[in-house]
Specification:
6 copies of one chain form a homohexamer.
Chain A: E1 8-22, E2 28-36, E3 39-45, H1 50-55, E4 61-71, E5 74-84, H2 93-96, H3 104-116, H4 121-133, H5 135-138, H6 154-172, H7 178-187, H8 192-195, H9 206-210, H10 212-227, H11 233-243, H12 260-282
Parallel strand pairs in A: 3-5
Antiparallel strand pairs in A: 1-2, 1-4, 2-3, 4-5
Protein name (chains A, B, C, D, E, F): 3'-5' exoribonuclease YhaM
Keywords (chains A, B, C, D, E, F): Exonuclease, Hydrolase, Nuclease
Pfam family, one (chains A, B, C, D, E, F): HD
Chain lengths: ~300, ~300, ~300, ~300, ~300, ~300
């Protein structure tokens, strides 16, 4: 965040973290890290009641007013006012953090359309049911804590790009079952809304660590089938698509793809993730230069040809 | 099977496979492969009705009477009589195939006792519930199609040996949670009753191939918790124990052990499986000789010291 | 080939192999293996002159007339007449062997169009120049000796499918350089016309074994640039695309992809090759069955769901 | 160590390291690092004679009197008196460093009992002979420089735990040869008394680096057999047990286990080492938390369930 | 062996194997496989006494007279006379089996000269002592059961070639210690005279399987030092040279080379072994052809250029 | 560099790097890092014209006069005079940087002699032609940026050592083709004069990164053959030698050695590179000590025996 010392500010910010301390007067205070797209800043909230502690949890959007100070070489915000926002403020997490280039509404429409286009009632109903269950999180969560699509709505954006890619490939290779491919794309990472902690300061949940998003989603498919009274091999194949989408045991899939669409789903996932990494690695690089090394791309660095721009 | 050509026999046998053909008179006939512990023999069942086809499915125990013939250098049984057995015959699959050295009843008592000893109601109820659901198969199935415990009741025998080993280890290392260890042992391979086709001519089911016994059982634990209205971290930890019991991603566990008892469960499984392989590899070997190579033990061959017997 | 002994036949066939022998009368004879799509048959060509030996080399199309005999349990063709075909016969290699589903003319038009669409004169001229040089072979050769596209015109068919896929992907990810992608697709395997022996009884040439198609084509690109007096980084990037298209050192690329389009080229190659393998593995399989193991797909076997057909 | 500046102390401490320097007056001085269980502190020993240099070697227990100073932000002990301890002081290394939870005497009795229980005179005599040779060190050394049992008497404690585990396993699998198992446990790491430098500031000796504890002990077994005039296959099998106890070539065993007891010895070693690591990793962790990553356990971190304590 | 049925022969042959049977008259007979450089042939020795059984053990050289018969499509020798040879016959194993291109005497002189040239008394005495102990076998044994130098005196021939190579390399890189290099070459595989069964029908001994030639020789070096009352670091370094000569743990060396000469010894061993494999693979190949695949050279096949001969 | 503040110096130095800045008076200045064998020093070149910028590029040898200052704790050279050197100065890069122990002239003579000794005109002419093309760089460049022979003329010195080693080995194994071996040695790394930036502050060029020295040289061999109108298999074999000299795909050779001399070339390269690393690692170590870990030798550290010096 770029402010001058002494500057008066009024801002919408997001609580990134909250730590409780005891001041020398014996009263509790909160150290809040507040962020927006331009960075983050520390603010002390003195004489905090336990209700305040509840109110200003991480991921809360607040409006603050205060003055910029400097403390040990770093800027600090001296709070004058703070309040949680409400609907009238019209501020969303995606306004304060890096977010997908498509609006949530737009992505919802696209996903809805692909589900609508499915021909198999079993596959269509299970997919729709599972998306509905976690719809809000699905369109808000990042796709990962790092490496690719690690921004607000990154998960949905990844899915939308993959759906388009799946459609192109199915157009070229007509032996592919579109229903399986679309459902596989939509469901493959949906377990991440339980594996990850949320769009802000994203980390792994305990369940995410011990079970993983693959297992979480496979179970949800079974549960959806029970709730919708759907039987038949489609349920098992959908589970297999999710189970095998990492491609190999050593990459986290206990079974490798053993159905054609599962194999292709793995490639589609790969291409979209890698394109995202490549674009981000190269966007800060000038023609004739190499990017920094990209860990998830075997630690390679990439060259931008002099005739590119 | 060792019989002389022309010998009259009356035997209890198990149908290993059934293939339908059409004879030159236009009528259907069945080619049955019948087996007992001494081997197998082919028999033709002429003029078979579709009802006969239903009756003499694989895994059926039959009583046959007939005469031993030879056809193209192999013995054949010329059927005079055949009928499926009933309870009065008192013949079980385990009488006709290699089977575990403990009686089913004995193994049931042991498993029941270990479940009874559990202190956590959540863990105890889920374990008991899941064993009950597939109890008959659990005490009949082999533990694998090959490598170790590949005999009738091999799965339960493997579990019973592991329970005793788990108890010994928990006695020596008191920081271990016995409930988790015992439940982990009982549930870890229980999904094999869906992964494998049964105790006779065992192969993988489609579900076994596409999902695997680990995933199958993890789902069943969730389902059991729902049916029993059990909530709490115990459910997740039980799922993690099953999920991680192969120890590493490349050995089929999408998550490695991340709970102490999960790590130890993996070792207990390993020791009991390997002891079974070692004993079987060495039982046909004389002191001073090497066994044949054992594929699942890195293709090693093992030496029986001259001072052993 | 299914013929009856004694049958008189007149056929167009392809010489698959020729072996010279000396008959008991001291004269030379040729043992020809002749093939068409239905299989192959042996024929003896007695009293062969050295001119005949030259005429009936492998890959020659011949018209034969003769009678079907049987020798040591296998059919043999007793030749009455044989002659090499000429243009009037209108028979091509692709009529006698399995071939790509698109006609050569059709594939030529598509490749020409993609070259025409290129915007960079340097890339366009090099690509066109190299295709022209080996045009006949390019549209006739298989893409490999086994695994995928191992049929007449398989190389060009693989390229045409990849071009369409490249176009779809470039439509979705506008940061990609279409010229590089198209040129990379067209050139990546073009060295196979020197690495492989030809469309019939395909094997590796000595040069193919010792240098490989990647190195062969990289050199040709340099040579083309010299011949066309083209300088500039485009030449180096085209060489890098070919050099890196196997993706990793251990898969035969001495440099991994270090340019965005090189990374994507590797995926496009992979998807088209794998789709070809998958379709061929599953085309002989009924719903509810598994295919045979596919070596180049990590020896997996693939399941055709019961709801597919 | 927690002392206040200016505090007068009289302490038993262990010399961890000694470095010689030359003071500005041209006389030698020693910089001693002195430690006990609470940590370590530096002390300067001025005007040190070469006899003092010999006396205050690392691993010496000393009694010191002095005053706590501070120098460049770190505490220092200003020595007033220092002397090496003698038997009357009754202080042992294990009083000043972290040590095994069992007393040396207790561990000696257990090892003696297991040796006493052996039935094969050859195995018993060799084992007893080798333990006797290095008895003092065996009950004092750690089992490693880090990872597991890296404390005073850690080697013997590891052996004692393994002996109990070996007994439990032999009770469950009667085909195991107890003599081999017990001797294997006692001898497997005995070479560490030559591979490691001692219980204090443990490092590898040159011999340890160039030959390793496995080779060292295998040679000692041969030597013991010569000294005891013992011949017969038992000697070779004991050597094989030690040689193969790391399980695989890449883990440092030039031969993999090829005798049943060698295979099981490897597992017993593994379980006891891993239990030690797990207990230490989890003892500082609260329920609901993850431990730090444990390098020797594939860098995993472990979860302590909320229902544990 | 190429003989005609009915031919009378008188030959020196080597007993390759002996199997005892009981004839229909109740008397024992021996089935002997007899060999020379041209191949092997079976002979029945009827009415064999137990003394005969002792006399005609494998590796015995015999003189036989008899007639060539045919039995079940294979030649057999009908024995008329058989006797073990003695010194007067002047026939050695190397006359009947493939053997090294240098005479034993010649190789002995070379090895003696290299030992004589050593400057370190410790290294020289240990090396000479160990060669003396097994001198007869050392100059008779093959270097392996397959892959390279698998012929009579192959071990010594391998050592002699390596000594010359070691000398050349030491001439070029004067920082190398020639004593260590020569001693390392002479001792590195000397344990093979215990690891292998002998020059005829070579197999692994039990000791060879369970301990391996590396461990066997390392122990012998220690034992030699004790017998010669030699102390000092030279002993440890010689042991390290042998211990590490396979280069990596996964290739059977429990410690990698950690001394300069150990690293170079590994390369010298490699070059000589590989040259032997390459020469043998290519000696049956014509210019312009590829050899068969060589398993120990990563299963590669090698090309003989057309300009070679 | 060790100078005292205030000292007047006149020195020959090498420009290691040049950075342009704008002074507060608005004029350009250059920050030059100047080096000789004793280290490097910074100098400011004020009021630099664009011509000066061209003149004092990295790798230029200059004569400077000036005074030693100190700035922020580091020495700086206050320039009084600076000029590029010319032939009269008689100063070469190798006088100012660490360089090979043989003079360039001496190495040129050796390489010339080996080329002269070749018997195949084709191999001889191609080798001579390629050396001539880059002769100046060949005798000036290092062999690598780090690991081995990373000094001025390191590339040629590596080649000269390898030529001698190749000759020794060919003397011992007469089946080797000396022409191929010598040409392989001379050409194998010649592409490094394009892969690397030069002898000063050596880094990889873009071409080096994207294509690599192996590919660069293989192309040059083809180009040389065209320029010299040489045809025949020798050209292909020379290309194969260069292509395969890293030994394995994962080490950067797209084809493994498939010709005998290619296999041996790989070993010769290895030995000379490793000897260079070992000598440099051990030259700063005293007897009885271990060297630092050497990354390119599997991160091992090496022991210098107490009897070495």
């Amino acid at each position: 965040m770029e402010y001058n010392v002494g500057e008066q500010v009024q801002l919408y910010l997001l609580v990134k973290s909250q730590t409780k301390g005891i001041a020398s007067n014996g009263k509790a205070f909160l150290t809040l890290i507040l962020q927006d797209k331009s960075g983050d800043i520390e603010a002390k909230f003195w004489d905090a009641s336990s209700e305040d502690e509840q109110t200003y949890q991480p991921q809360t959007i607040v409006q603050v007013a205060g003055e910029i100070h400097e403390y040990r070489g770093r800027l600090q915000l001296k709070l004058k006012q703070i309040r949680p926002t409400n609907e009238q403020d019209g501020v969303e997490v995606g306004d304060l953090l890096e977010r997908a280039p498509l609006a949530v509404k737009e992505m919802q429409d696209i996903v809805t359309q692909y589900i609508f286009d499915m021909k198999s009632p079993a596959i269509q109903r299970i997919t729709r049911h599972l998306v509905k269950k976690v719809e809000k999180d699905f369109f808000l969560y990042p796709a990962a804590t790092k490496n690719h699509h690690e921004f607000v709505s990154g998960l949905a954006y990844h899915v939308v790009s993959m759906l388009k890619l799946a459609k192109s490939i199915a157009d070229l290779y007509p032996s592919l079952d579109r229903d399986l491919l679309y459902a596989g794309v939509i469901l493959h990472d949906l377990g991440k809304v339980q594996e990850l902690s949320g769009p802000v300061a994203t980390s792994y949940t305990v369940e995410g660590n011990l079970l993983g998003h693959i297992n979480i989603m496979v179970e949800q498919i079974s549960q959806a089938a029970i709730e919708l009274s759907i039987e038949g091999e489609e349920v098992m194949i959908l589970k297999h698509l999710v189970l095998s989408h990492h491609g190999k045991a050593e990459w986290g899939s206990p079974k490798p793809p053993m159905v054609k669409e599962a194999e292709i789903l793995h490639y589609i996932d790969n291409i979209d993730a890698k394109m995202n990494m490549l674009d981000r690695a190269l966007e800060r690089v000038k023609p004739g230069e190499f990017s920094e090394r990209v860990f998830a791309l075997d630690n390679r660095n990439f060259y931008k040809p002099t005739f590119h721009n």
